[in-house]
Amino acid sequence: MADHTLALSGGLHMPWSWCGHCERTYATGTCRLIRFTPDALHPHPATLKLCPYSDCNASTVRYQWQWANLLQQHPEYPATPSQNVVYMR
């Protein structure tokens, strides 16, 4: 998974990601992994990376956003978000 931490001017990192599907935040780098075993038609094993929330089946490749992007659009949101809280885009 791509590293989406944002280095700030003080050398600090914002290790938060936002799921564009369920609109909740999570620590960047966490996800649910589904590994597929190789077979004759698909010789390379595939890994699907999903949002860490069990009730969301969104792919982190498509729906993961940097929390900093949302902060630019919504400066009223906290710098450190709460987990399992919906933050509307």
Note down, in words, how this protein is organized.
There is one protein chain. The chain is an alpha+beta fold and 89 residues long. 12% of the residues lie in helices and 27% in strands. The strands form three sheets. It has a three-stranded antiparallel sheet. Strand 1 and strand 2 (13-14) form a beta hairpin. The longest helix is centred in the last third of the chain and has 7 residues, at 67-73. The chain starts with 5 loop residues before the first strand and ends in a 16-residue tail after the last helix. Mean pLDDT is 85; it is low at 1-12.
* Number of helices in the DSSP assignment: 2
Rough shape? elongated
N- to C-terminal distance: 23 Å
Looking at the chains present, what oligomeric state does this protein adopt?
single chain
Largest sheet, strands/sense/barrel: 3 strands, antiparallel
What percent of residues are in strands?
A: 25-35%
Secondary-structure element series: EEEEEEHEH
What's the arrangement of strands in the largest beta sheet? Answer: 4-3-7
Task: Kindly name the structural category.
Answer: alpha+beta
Query: Mean pLDDT across all residues, rounded?
Result: 85
Radius of gyration, in Å, reads 15 Å
Which runs of at least 5 residues are low in confidence (pLDDT < 50)? 1-12
Helix share bin: 10-25%
* DSSP E strands, number: 7
